[in-house]
Amino acid sequence: MTMLGAEAVQPIELRGATLPDSERVLTTEAMTFLAELGARFAAPRAQLLQARRQRQEKIDAGALPGFLPATESIRKEDWQILGIPADLQDRRVEITGPVDRKMVINALNAQVRVFMADFEDSLAPSWEKVVQGQANLMDAVAGTIEYTNPANGKHYALDEDPAVLICRVRGLHLDEAHLQQDGQALPGALVDFALYFLHNHQALLSKGSGPYFYIPKLESHLEARWWAEVFAYSEERFGLQPGTIKVTCLIETLPAVFEMDEILYELRNNIVGLNCGRWDYIFSYIKTLKNHPDRVLPDRQVVTMEKPFLNAYSRLLIRTCHRRGALAMGGMAAFIPAKDPETQAKVLEKVTADKELEARNGHDGTWIAHPGLAQTAMGVMDQYIGDAPNQLGVSRESDAPITAEHLLQPCEGQATEQGMRANIRIAVQYIEAWISGNGCVPIYGLMEDAATAEISRASIWQWIRHGTVLDNGQLVTQALFEQMLNQELETVRQELGGQRFDSGRFEQAAELFRAITCAEQLTDFLTLPGYEILSKNTSNG
Ligand SMILES: CC(=O)SCCNC(=O)CCNC(=O)[C@H](O)C(C)(C)COP(=O)(O)OP(=O)(O)OC[C@H]1O[C@@H](n2cnc3c(N)ncnc32)[C@H](O)[C@@H]1OP(=O)(O)O
Ligand SMILES: O=CC(=O)O
Ligand SMILES: [Mg+2]
Questions:
Q1: Do residues 463 and 357 share a domain?
Q2: Is the pTM above the cut of 0.80?
Q3: Which residues contact residue 201 at a Cβ distance below 8 angstroms, ignoring those fewer than 6 apart?
Q4: Ligand 2, atom 3, residue with closest C-alpha
Q5: Residue 143: is its pLDDT beyond 90?
Q6: Are residues 398 and 439 in the same domain?
Q7: Residue 540 has what pLDDT?
Q8: What are phi and psi for residue 402, nearest 5 degrees?
Q9: 141, 150, 189, 541: most buried, per Cβ within 10 A?
Q10: Domain boundary residue, one of 356, 374, 405
Q11: Whose alpha carbon is nearest atom 1 of ligand 2?
Q12: Could you tell me the distance, in angstroms and rounded to a whole number, from the CA of residue 93 to the centre of ligand 3?
């Protein structure tokens, strides 16, 4: 037992297997810091999750989310965030990717400004990946990371002048089952934060950078306050100046879009920007408004950033950030490079159009999923940002006000049989990959991760719930879904080949997909039931 002020702190119980990197990642100091953070912040995190449920109950009963009357003064008054460090001023193109060793090296060497190393949407957080991912980032920060691909002998090492590193931690809803305190799993978010911060802050600061984080899936400014307290505690604990930790928050839930000023305010010492996490945002629109029959979304393919409700979100985020001196980051076009030149030309055209829309709106940077898109994205952002580091000068103050109605407006478009079948094939293949330990996969030429797959599966639940009629006149029911699922599993088998299909976990994936799609209540995150299966499936779980 260690002491936290006058309190005794329960130690952390390690439930995960010992791995090659365990010794240097899960040091005594790390376990002590985790115990301190768990003792202080695990119970308040449980209360925040409870508050999410309470708010959702009201929305389920007919209320709509909106700006909070109690925090109007924060929205009205003039104040600014503390500041942005030199190496975060210019973030015009950021690459994202899971914390696999080879990809970390490739991403840091990509022709981009920032690499967001992801423990979230693109990572299936098996114990092995969590521990190895931290070790990979320790080596990346030390500059010693290397990898040789056993399949072809190709060797990887860091080039000179790698991208700036930002670590994205898990969302507040996910537990880390392999680290327990008092019989309770630690929040995954605290584990990812604590390990990356503890092991790397000194090395990062000594080379003129710092402990930088992306925080995903926030739903309220009270959650931002919780993070501000975690940061303040950690800075004081390690003798750092307040505001040393720098953070960018994803605004990727519908409730959070109404609290952007408040989130910036709560985190004003630490925050440098907000990001339009469009895929989770679309998922959250479905989830939050799931009981509202007038706000059912059409086919995923037509819900693009040009749709008025998404364009309003992007523009309000830019205006809010720039007024406070914070960066307004854009999001991810899910396209990835194609092998055949004709498709590749179309991919580049679509990526260019997407990035142009963001840059024209005034975003300070954008995301890419693959190094092969760096040049295209950089070309567009350079055109708009030029020699300046960012577009903080674009205020959007003269725009007409963006209201709750704009942010909540229904999205036009059809629900089609083709769209439903595509959603089924994508969701089942993604779930199969995730429960097998792979959180990001190319499917039909697009990057699919936890956020994009959530849209596919939640859409079908919503269409069943509201009796949506497809373009072919069919009523969406559970029976129709089950019939299509069986047919589409056969299509996937043909596409992938019997050997891959039979040696995979498609039965298990279909079972989970069926359960969450036919459930009376929409499952909050597919990764919650998925995590239990993942832990059993992965040998070190
Ligand atoms: C909604 C959101 O949250 S978006 C953020 C989360 N999502 C992501 O981060 C997506 C990250 N992207 C990826 O994981 C990958 O691009 C995938 C899985 C979609 C496709 O990967 P692959 O099938 O390996 O693509 P491909 O074969 O074309 O890769 C070519 C090379 O680029 C590398 N590469 C591809 N994407 C990335 C990336 N994001 N970061 C670093 N390297 C990458 C591959 O490792 C490969 O390297 P190699 O030639 O040295 O072997
Ligand atoms: O995290 C990003 C998103 O689009 O979701
Ligand atoms: Mg997301």
A1: no
A2: yes
A3: 210, 211, 238, 240, 244, 245
A4: 277
A5: yes
A6: no
A7: 54
A8: -100, 120
A9: 189
A10: 405
A11: 277
A12: 17
Rounded mean pLDDT of 501-516? 98
Q: What 3-state class would DSSP assign to 247?
A: strand
Q: From residue 24, how far is each of 31, 77, 118 by CA, in Å?
A: 11, 47, 20
- The domain in which residue 428 lies consists of 414-537
Mean pLDDT, all residues of the chain: 97
Smallest Cα–Cα separation from 316: which of 257, 379, 263, 244?
A: 257
Find out whether 81 and 264 touch, Cβ atoms under 8 Å.
yes
Domain membership flag for residue 91: yes
**Could you give the residue numbers annotated as active site?**
168, 449
pLDDT tens-digit map of 59-71? 999 999 999 999 9
Residue 539 predicted with pLDDT over 80: no
Task: Based on the fold, state whether residues 368 and 430 are members of the same structural domain.
Answer: no
Pocket around ligand 2 at a 6 A CB cut-off: 121, 216, 250, 252, 277-280, 331-332, 451
Q: Given the CA of residue 110, which atom of ligand 1 is nearest to it?
A: 41
Q: Do residue 419 and residue 390 come from a single domain?
A: no
**Residues 57, 176 within the same domain:** yes
Q: How far apart are CA 17 and CA 353, in angstroms?
A: 47
CATH code where residue 222 lies: 3.20.20.360
The answer as to whether 6 is a domain residue is no
**274: nearest Cα among 44, 69, 84, 67:** 84
Which pLDDT score is estimated for 4?
A: 53
Q: Same domain, yes or no, for 227 and 359?
A: yes
- Indicate whether 3 belongs to any domain: no
Asked if the structure places residue 108 within a domain, the reply is yes
Domain count along the chain:
2
User: How high is the pLDDT of residue 2?
Assistant: 53
- Do 291 and 437 lie in one domain? The reply is no
Residue whose CA is at the smallest distance from ligand 1 atom 12: 369
What is the rounded CA–CA span in Å between residue 456 and residue 436? 19
Q: Ligand 1 test: best mutation among 217, 305, 447, most atoms within 8 Å of CB?
A: 447
Token pair in block for residue 362:
């005034």
pLDDT of residue 396: 87
Nearest to 24 by CA among 100, 130, 135: 135
Which among 530, 528, 539, 531 is positioned nearest to 173, based on CA atoms?
528
**Ligand 1 atom having least distance to the Cα of 116:** 9
C-alpha 471/C-alpha 433 separation (Å) is 30
On whether both 197 and 253 belong to a single domain, the answer is yes
Domain boundary among 351, 382, 405: 405
Residue range 364-393: mean pLDDT, rounded: 98
Q: Distance from the CA of 241 to the center of ligand 2, in angstroms?
A: 31
| Tens-digit pLDDT profile for residues 213-266 | 999 999 999 999 999 999 999 999 999 999 999 999 999 999 999 999 999 999
Question: What residues form DSSP beta bridges with 327?
Answer: 273
ipTM for the whole complex: 0.99
Residue-wise pLDDT tens digits, 153-166: 999 999 999 999 99
SS3 state at 271 = strand
* Predicted pLDDT at 397: 86
